[in-house]
Write a structure and sequence with these properties.
The chain has about 170 residues and is α/β, with parallel strands linked by helices. It has four helices and eight strands, in the order ββββααβαβββα. The chain has a four-stranded mixed β-sheet. The chain has a two-stranded antiparallel ribbon with strand order 1-2. A hairpin with a 5-residue loop joins strand 6 and strand 7. It is elongated.
Length: about 170
Amino acid sequence: MRLTILPVGATDASLPKTISLVRDEVSLEDQQAKAQILDLPTSQGTTLRLGVIDLPSFYADLAARRTSQRDGRRRTVAQEVEGEHVRGVVLDLRRNGGGSLEEAVSLTGLFIREGPVVQTRGPRGDIGVDADTDPSVLYDGRWSCLSVASAHQPRKSWSARFKTMARRGCG
């Protein structure tokens, strides 16, 4: 890609500078969901088994969209945790820099029966609601969500939806 610019303060508009940019390949592997199982000792001398799902971003996997494998990796990670017979799941959004609202809604659908997930306001002030319309859930046990105060929009939306469910006794 070439970018042609006219330097600030240039007196002759016929002397633009051309800068060549080479785009590097971006790997989404570091942004994929990852699961970890923790066996924690309790004060009663037993072990508490928890699943931790690390979600560094809500990336939009365009290749998966074309092949109808939307939630592929996230679904696999959630199934891994579910298969380990955990007592609860911790959804870790602390490193999540945001990303696609559509992906955040899709991921939320793996954990909730159905309902509104995020409300957005368009440039003309029109309000839209994105909802999960699939009544099936992948994980129906106890969960908790870790986030930070300076959350980006998709993470805030997702975290807020889970907090609302927790107040209703759903999580």
